[in-house]
Amino acid sequence: MRPSARALLLATLLLTGAIPVRAEAPADPATGPVASPETSPAAAPDFAQCLGGLKTLAEERGVPRPVAETALTGIAPDPSVVPATQSQAEFVKPIWQYVEASVTPERIAAGQAKLAEWSEVLGRIEAAYGVDRHILVAFWGVESNYGAALEGGGIRPVVPALATLACGDPARPGLWRDELVAALKILADGDADTERMRGSWAGAMGHTQFMPTAFLRHAVDFDGDGKRDIWHSVPDALASTANFLKQSGWRAGEGWGVEVLLPDTFDYRLADETTERPFSEWRALGLAPANGAFPEGAERRAALLLPTGAKGPAFLLEPNFRVILRYNTALAYALTVAHLSDRLRGAPGFTRDWPRGDRMLTAEERTDLQTRLAALGHPVGGADGKIGPKTRAAIRAFQEARGLVPDGYADAALLDRVRDAQKPGQ
């Protein structure tokens, strides 16, 4: 997970203040093998000095000095991890590519086999935490392909990776220091040793990719062997994920949301993704479920989201969707987990297709768009290159002022219109 652990990527959809579990994209071996002593650059004096400071920090936060000394002495920086901070797939790929890379026929079939294999354990986890088994197995599938990715080329020792980030990533050094100290506490507690504690470039570990701080807060020993082993124990990993979701506000017996179809006369200003209305009110506004029926219960409420505007699928999102976002704040990630969970229970794919002909914006173009919208009097809450609720609200305001469909969708065509609006005489 991207960390409960990490105070990062906080400007994305529907964020409510909770810290996510994972700090980077789901398991992706494309980051390459761990650098060996032969291929790693020699530890520079500033890295060695930084390690000394990290040892002191860890001791100040309660890590026994011998544990920090043993774990941090003699390690070299990993040259692959800092560049990886700039290439997280869920923020650079079109959303449909990201969803479809994980929700494949093969992964659906494998997940359904896992549901059968671990049925008894999943039943006990559901009873203990109130989290639906399909959601848990969907997290497992997206995070590590049901454990298959744990032996891939991108899996590396966690402590050197986090030390490299703590000493080499100027954007978030405090985040990485916190994660490193948490990793050292795990070693001190005996839940893992340095050989077992392997993970992604950002330190995400185990079957469901907990960051070290998330591990300390939420990992549980569900198989009763005295260790919280998210690396080798499927019961521990899935129960730990369920515990995180429960502690983050998961509502037992409720889903994440539904795909909906909008009437031709729909007022797109209502799709602000933050205003929740009862399903009965959405029905009165002409929305209909794309498959099946709306959830029962007059108290059930949802917010409307159009990830790719009026041209793509629309979703009514229940509060549990926000909990998925607390695991990982990227909309593409949360929608992938949600959709895979539905497919695992036998539901069909999305009814409406994505606008595949549209060109998505690069990170630099997203920042440019935000800067220009703010200059035109539409505040975005900061030009960070992340298209979240405030930016989409600014886009809707711009679109409405110019007679466009106010759907909040940011693509290359919109950026061209915003640039044109800044030209003299416009």
TrEMBL record:
SUPFAM superfamilies: Lysozyme-like, PGBD-like. The keyword Signal applies. Residues 1-23 form the signal peptide. Residues 47-342 form the Transglycosylase SLT domain. Residues 363-416 form the Peptidoglycan binding-like domain. Keywords: Signal. PANTHER family: LYTIC MUREIN TRANSGLYCOSYLASE (PTHR30163:SF8), MEMBRANE-BOUND LYTIC MUREIN TRANSGLYCOSYLASE B (PTHR30163). This is Lytic murein transglycosylase.
